[in-house]
């Protein structure tokens, strides 16, 4: 016989869990005691939301389920945004929340909400454990569902009285399990259609960054010369310095990549799903699409592919690449001309010495400071578009941005999780002054855990992204400005190092200093967003139309 909470921890151990991120409440005390006796490390955070973001990012980077922990009611509601982040973003994450005793309780309805019902639309699976004997199968099921394509959030509620029960049940080991391969007929149909094309293009999306697809995709690109585009969540799956890289779909329309996608006569879309902001918009009669993914395409007004190859992506791409032999008639002259125009645009502003710093210079300097394996974790704001467009990712999952929930507040926690997964790689969080302040309290966690990370805060004293949209829609500038703390002193108050960028030329040496000096660094970087609208809305549209 063993205590139920010990069995929960044994199940976690049998799944290979290294960390549990969270904040316990009194309802979790049995589980906390069981965790104390295990090798699993509890990362105690200052908000459940950031614990959830960290667990989700752990899942995103490793493919293994990240685990988060909270109490009932308020702890569980604080996890909701992170659940949605993992659910839409395809990141395997398990949330374990406490609950008052379910068999006998003297607390009325104090703190009680129906957490499972709340979690239901933002998870793949949610379940209240009502008996200790059921813990192993429910735990195994939660991990299976979290990791199965498309990965996402799952939730188990462990009530206080169940956690304290005794049981003879034992963890159920993981199975040996392979993903199904695509059907030969589907491969043949895709190959036949590709052979008929004259200038096809490849779009690389989120799904391709999850599994070992990178090497296979690169070989197909090298063999056939097919140009490729990355989506925001597919950044870096193939090195974006490759001569056939056409660009990133940072915007949904009006950029050079969209000219290329219109000019192509076939789009091969690898690993994209409609939860990501559309990289391109399909219209009736527009370029045909071959969809290659683990799952069939979820049809949408802007996405209705004509051919689907469903099964393991890497294998499907490999098979298609192997069968493609008759491609001498492919002609990429136009696509490559568009690529050159985009490349020329991207380097503009890389040495701009105006101050406050311009976004193009900022992106260029972070790229200059970072080695190929360095990780940039972005929060959500206007700079995300600049990073997606201008920052060339060299490897998968080295630019962590959230293009599906697109929540603010995830930049710092996802940088912290990246540091835990890859302690030897430089990690930089890039946050707006708005997004940073949504989870800035985690500076304490980062300092306490002796992390080495750098947080660059882009200070425009406002919700810049929304100001940009407001201006763009012709509204009067209203209500999107605020004040900020002195970020240098703020960092120092947490025991972190605070720095302020004093000129455009100051940024790069400062980044280099932070990357080589262990500790938590916060860089206050004033930014000038005044040209965003002109460049992103007008100039790109006009210049891409002119190619
Ligand atoms: C949690 C959350 N709240 C609100 C929004 C809507 N939103 C998107 S970007 C943005 C402004 C971001 O401001 P900041 O972090 O300062 O970045 P900036 O655009 O100014 O660089 C807002 C309010 C969101 N995406 N997520
Ligand atoms: Mg801002």
Describe this protein's structure:
The structure is a single chain. The N and C termini lie far apart (73 Å). This protein is α/β, with parallel strands linked by helices and 547 residues long. The chain has three domains: 2-167, Rossmann fold, CATH 3.40.50.970; 184-341, 3-Layer(aba) Sandwich (Rossmann fold), CATH 3.40.50; 348-538, Rossmann fold (3-Layer(aba) Sandwich), CATH 3.40.50.970. It is globular, with a radius of gyration of 24 Å. Helix 1 packs parallel to helix 6 (135-147), helix 11 packs parallel to helix 22 (532-546) and helix 14 (359-369) runs parallel beside helix 21 (507-516). The longest helix is centred in the first third of the chain and has 17 residues, at 73-89. The strands form four sheets. It has a six-stranded parallel beta sheet, sandwiched between helices. Strands 11-10-9-12-13-14 form a six-stranded parallel beta sheet, sandwiched between helices. It contains 22 helices and 20 strands. The site of magnesium ion has 8 residues, from helix 17. Residues 381, 432-434, 460, 462-464 line the site of magnesium ion (MG).
Helix content: 40-55%
CATH superfamily of the largest domain: Thiamin diphosphate (ThDP)-binding fold, Pyr/PP domains
CATH architecture of the largest domain: 3-Layer(aba) Sandwich
Mean pLDDT: 96
Report the end-to-end length measured between terminal Cα atoms: 73 Å
